Amino acid sequence: MSEAKRRVLELAERHVCPNRVAALRALGIDLVIGRREGYRIWDLDGRELLDFHLNGGVFNLGHRNPEVCDALRAALDELDVGNHHFPSGPRAELAAALAALAPGDLPYAVFAPSGSEAIEVALKTARRATKRRRIVSIQRGYHGQSGLGLAAGDERFSRPFLSEGAPGEFLQVPFNDLAAMEESLRADDVAAVILETIPATCGFPLPAEGYLPGVKALCERHGSVYEADEVQTGLGRTGSMWGVERFGVVPDVLVTGKGLSGGLYPISAALLSPRVAGWLHEDGWGHTSTFGGAELGCRVGQKVLEITARPGVLENVAAVSERLGAGLEDIRSRHADWLLEVRRCGVVMGLRFAHERGAMWMAKHLYEAGLWAMFAGFDPSVLQFKAGLLVDADYCDEALARFEDGLRRCVTALRG
Q: What distance lies between CA 274 and its chain's CA centroid?
């Protein structure tokens, strides 16, 4: 290990994230990212890795995408973060671009610097619109690390910080269980149902046929707001611009983030329907965020949307999905006792292994084989396997070869 890498690890363990450094070290993972380009990253020691984590989709368009970098450089010649109290050209233009691409009628955008804050906007918007307090989400869901979103997520993160909310205020029901969802809404006292279109942190289980439209119908029947958390599944990752479009759902609120930043400038947004956006007309200071809709970030977001919406990009996502899916199923056929399931919707993929910690072990051996992918936080039997939107066939084939190498290393180690 180089002295530069050793020093970063020591400082991180001392000052930033001691348990995380220790936990990864126990797995045999000592990654400190140095150079990064496209869909490849290099450790400070020079080890090259194919990036199949993408920081949850932040790097949809690759690390340091040249066009997005150019957009940010050009913006720096004339802009800064701006002032959130006043109308802004870049902010207005990005909002209009989002409205034009949104599913259904979502003409309003409230900007934030992170997905967590945008979720906060979405949930308090639903409370204001319905005059109700209760929030329904799914078990093992994840909606950020602050406030209402933290309380709506799994207690793994909320309970240690005493942030579960008041008794009965937040309710989690099983995913893909329409009967449980109907029971939770029966009293007509729920402000919002918030769902990740394909829940990421519990391993990307796919919605059952009719589940999401069924939830939307229940929300309409009981006067609740349907909120789509598309922080990870939006911006082309499912093969449609928005994941809900794959499942025939038009939400009342849609939250986007991560990839909107281009990996260069933090920005997110809650897109609101006229049904819930009344407060924007009633109180212009109902929600303010100093860095929400920073003008530099808006220019980056515009370029991200332009690239993602280009002819051929979603077609490439479909081709990549098919190539990787076929390759993974071929590998699974030869290792069916270890790789149990390939979950796939576009380039949103979850790979389930035959041990409750199987994906944690796979992450270590894939790291050794030159591919970085992360296990699902709420189900470490599942590996999140996330390709970028713009990868080509050669990259897919190289990734499949490295994946099978890592899988063999893992199986050999377990047998030993």
A: 25
| Mode of pairing for the β-strands spanning 379-384 and 348-353 | antiparallel
- Give domain limits for the chain: 31-64+311-415, 66-308
Contact 200, 134 (CB under 8 A): no
Q: Judge contact between 118 and 289, C-beta under 8 A.
A: no
Q: What is the CATH number of domain 31-64+311-415?
A: 3.90.1150.10
Question: On the CB side of 112, how many CA atoms lie within 13 Å of its CA?
Answer: 21
CATH 3.40.640.10 for domain 66-308, yes or no, is yes
59: which 2 tokens? 């790097």
Kindly tell me the burial class for residue 104, based on how many C-beta atoms sit within 10 Å of its own C-beta (0-12, 13-18, 19 or more). middle
pTM given for the model: 0.96
Distances (CA, A) of 238 to 182, 305, 313, 316: 27, 15, 12, 11
- The 3-state DSSP class for residue 376 equals strand
The CA angle 82-88-91, to the nearest 5 degrees, is 90
pLDDT tens for the chain, 416 residues: list them. 899 999 999 999 999 999 999 999 999 999 999 999 999 999 999 999 999 999 999 999 999 999 999 999 999 999 999 999 999 999 999 999 999 999 999 999 999 999 999 999 999 999 999 999 999 999 999 999 999 999 999 999 899 999 988 999 999 999 999 999 999 999 999 999 999 999 999 999 999 999 999 999 999 999 999 999 999 999 999 999 999 999 999 999 999 999 999 999 999 999 999 999 999 999 999 999 999 999 999 999 999 999 999 999 999 999 999 999 999 999 999 999 999 999 999 999 999 999 999 999 999 999 999 999 999 999 999 999 999 999 999 999 999 999 999 999 999 999 88
